[in-house]
């Protein structure tokens, strides 16, 4: 002490941490006033006592099984948690460092301990531990739900895909049968019935196409495109319009084409897009007003729009038009799956283009636009 | 089966016809024997190992079911003995490994000729007519403390030895290698250690047994050690002039002397 003078002695006695020295047998040799004050023990009560007797019972076990052996092996042990019991019987949470003083032969002479109060730190640690535990539990629960959800949705989408696929074959038979019948029927009435059958077959085929596309998109395949700029697009569009005319007797569908350069697109898909837009116009448009199809290449864009008259689409509905399974008001017999506009918009996106809608009491117009280059 | 030598971090040293197997207790690893085992290397083949979950053992071999009882650990001791072809060897077990040794000796007759039990307890929790030293509540509190103690706090064990200026003989290669334990495994080991009851196993020990007991040991008191020695047919106890639970560290010379007299 004398080397450091009275200030250092004051420091040892009144340090903001507890100092304790132990004899080789683990009994207390000295404790500074800070530790005495914290623990509530008088010096003569604890000097000569076993240090471990000042600890809580689990603290004693930990001291004897972990701290003491490590201290002996390493000569020091840092940052261990240790709980003293105060004279009043209250636990005193501390964190401590310890080291040994040895003679030249390595014989243990003294153990030095420095202890600081760690009440808040312990509380913080407990909260962290509890937080970690609940985070792990929550994560496990979430994983379980996710897994189940994933399995369920995969099953559901596989089911849709298989169903769509299996529906096509019988539909093809019906279509072939109707075609055969169409050649031989005599009366006007019979012709009407056969035409109606073909219309229905076409509507159903379109629905199945959409269902398959939807399922494929959800299963991760997305809508795949088969780009081809060489073939002409106009005949494909014209054929779609003819089919719809045939299937919707009494409806007027006008078309205007101004395609004067090649359009690098998947023609079958663009045909499907137009078919979906036209089907939508037939279902929701005013029956006594013409539907207009317009296609042109202009300003580096290919634009295709379908317009119909009829009630304006309410603003609340506009936002949901392109969502899957959204169905507007329609007669039950005309009701589709609500996939047509969704698939059309997906086809538009796949082409790097966009499908938009504008609706006024005078006209509702769905416009597809994609860059030519 | 996994390679036993790697699984239990087995180290064989020394010369001699007989082997001496050292088993560490709860709280540390084979380093516990570093002041004792070398003294026997001249006359014995010394076998040191870590229980699975401790020290340099293969943590991936830890089986929560198997190691929920001491017999799971005893199986490992027998496997190590079989692997090394041990016969009539000396088993030295510290703390909970005392009871692991008893179980192993019964399981593999002829493998262990003598047992040295350092600080043994046949049951830590008090029972009717039996004082083990702890109440069940205190053991529960211990398990809670293990949760919060820094030693087992981080998922990645923090380096515990940053260099060792005082003890250069321990060598750099041992840095960070003392008493490493996965926190969850440490807790499970504490549970199986402190909730075991092996009192009935004592009478079935057929080989000579030496109990080494510290004068003052709050983990395993003299009464507890005496109970073990008294209930083993060929048991005796030596009380060392030492304190604490680890005379192998705090009084290695006395431990060595007592063992020598017993095994020679």
Brief synopsis:
Chain A contains 10 helices and 10 strands. With 373 residues, chain A is α+β, with helices and mostly antiparallel strands.
The residue-averaged pLDDT of chain A reads 87
CATH topology of the largest domain in chain A: Heat Shock Protein 90
- Tell me the radius of gyration of chain B: 17 Å
Question: What is the structural class of chain A?
Answer: alpha+beta
Provide an overview of this structure.
The complex is a heterodimer of chains A (373) and B (264). Chain A is α+β, with helices and mostly antiparallel strands and 373 residues long. Chain A is built from ten helices and ten strands. In chain A, the strands form two sheets. Chain A has a five-stranded antiparallel beta sheet with strand order 2-1-5-4-3, with helices on both faces. In chain A, strands 6-7-8-10-9 form a five-stranded mixed beta sheet. Chain B has one domain: Alpha/Beta hydrolase fold, catalytic domain (Rossmann fold, 3-Layer(aba) Sandwich), CATH 3.40.50.1820. Chain B is globular. Chain B has a seven-stranded mixed beta sheet with strand order 1-3-2-4-5-6-7, with helices on both faces. Chain B is an alpha/beta fold and 264 residues long. Chain B is 33% helix and 16% strand. The A-B interface holds A 24-26, 50, 52, 56-62, 64-66, 68-70, 72-77, 79-81, 83, 95, 100, 102, 106, 108, 122, 125-126, 129 and B 25-28, 31-32, 34, 95, 134, 138, 141-151, 153, 160-161, 164, 166-167, 170, 178-179, 194, 216-219, 243-246, 249-250.
Could you name the key traits of this structure?
heterodimer, A: 373 residues, alpha+beta, Beta-Lactamase, Helix Hairpins, Heat Shock Protein 90, 3 domains, B: 264 residues, alpha/beta, 7-stranded mixed sheet
């Amino acid at each position: 002490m004398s080397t450091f003078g009275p200030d250092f002695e004051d420091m040892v006695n009144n340090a903001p941490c507890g100092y304790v020295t132990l004899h080789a047998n683990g009994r207390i040799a000295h404790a500074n006033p800070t530790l005495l004050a914290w623990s509530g023990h008088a010096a003569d009560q604890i000097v000569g006592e076993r240090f471990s007797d000042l600890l809580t019972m689990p603290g004693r076990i930990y001291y004897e099984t972990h701290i003491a052996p490590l201290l002996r092996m390493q000569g020091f042990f840092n940052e261990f948690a240790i709980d003293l019991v105060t004279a009043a019987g209250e636990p005193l949470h501390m964190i401590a460092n310890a080291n040994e003083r040895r003679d030249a032969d390595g014989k243990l002479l003294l153990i030095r301990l420095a202890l600081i109060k760690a009440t808040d730190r312990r509380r913080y640690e407990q909260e962290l531990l509890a937080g970690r535990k609940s985070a792990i539990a929550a994560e496990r629960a979430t994983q379980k739900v996710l897994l189940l959800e994933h399995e369920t949705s995969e099953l559901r989408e596989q089911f849709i895909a298989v169903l769509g696929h299996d529906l096509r074959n019988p539909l093809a038979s019906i279509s072939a049968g109707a075609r055969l019948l169409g050649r031989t029927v005599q009366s006007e009435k019979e012709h009407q019935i056969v035409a109606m059958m073909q219309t229905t077959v076409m509507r159903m085929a379109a629905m199945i196409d959409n269902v398959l596309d939807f399922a494929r998109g959800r299963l991760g395949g997305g809508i795949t495109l088969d780009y081809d700029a060489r073939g002409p697009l106009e005949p494909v569009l014209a054929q779609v319009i003819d089919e719809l005319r045939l299937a919707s007797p009494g409806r007027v569908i006008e078309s205007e084409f101004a395609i004067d350069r090649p359009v690098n697109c998947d023609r079958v898909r663009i045909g499907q897009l137009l078919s979906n837009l036209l089907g939508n116009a037939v279902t929701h448009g005013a029956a006594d007003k013409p539907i207009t199809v317009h296609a042109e290449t202009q300003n580096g864009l290919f634009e295709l729009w379908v317009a119909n008259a009829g009630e304006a689409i309410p603003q609340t509905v506009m936002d949901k038009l392109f969502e899957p399974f959204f169905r507007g008001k329609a007669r039950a017999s005309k009701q589709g799956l609500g996939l047509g506009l969704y698939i059309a918009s997906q086809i538009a996106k796949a082409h790097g283009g966009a499908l938009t809608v504008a609706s006024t009491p005078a006209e509702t117009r769905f416009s597809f636009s994609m860059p030519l280059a | 089966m996994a390679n036993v030598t790697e699984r239990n971090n087995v180290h064989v040293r020394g010369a001699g016809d007989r082997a001496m197997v050292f088993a560490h207790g709860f709280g540390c690893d084979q380093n516990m024997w570093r002041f004792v085992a070398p003294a026997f290397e001249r006359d014995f083949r010394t076998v040191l190992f870590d229980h699975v979950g401790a020290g340099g053992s293969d943590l991936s071999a830890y089986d929560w079911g198997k190691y929920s009882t001491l017999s799971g650990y005893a199986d490992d001791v027998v496997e190590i003995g079989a692997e090394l072809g041990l016969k009539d060897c000396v088993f030295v077990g510290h703390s909970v490994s005392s009871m692991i040794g008893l179980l192993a000796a019964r399981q593999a007759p002829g493998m262990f000729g003598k047992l040295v039990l350092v600080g043994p307890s046949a049951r830590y929790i008090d029972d009717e007519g039996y004082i083990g030293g702890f109440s069940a509540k205190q053991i529960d509190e211990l398990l809670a403390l293990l949760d919060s103690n820094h030693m087992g706090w981080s998922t990645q064990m923090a380096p515990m030895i940053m260099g060792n200026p005082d003890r250069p003989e321990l060598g750099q290669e041992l840095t960070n290698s003392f008493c490493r334990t996965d926190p969850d495994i440490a807790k499970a080991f504490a549970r199986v250690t402190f909730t075991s009851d092996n009192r009935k196993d004592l009478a079935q020990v057929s080989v000579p047994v030496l109990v080494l007991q510290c004068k003052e040991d709050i983990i395993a008191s003299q009464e507890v050690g005496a109970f073990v020695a008294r209930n083993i047919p060929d048991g005796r106890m030596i009380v060392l002039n030492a304190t604490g639970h680890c005379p192998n560290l705090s009084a290695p010379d006395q431990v060595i002397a007592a063992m020598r007299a017993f095994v020679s």
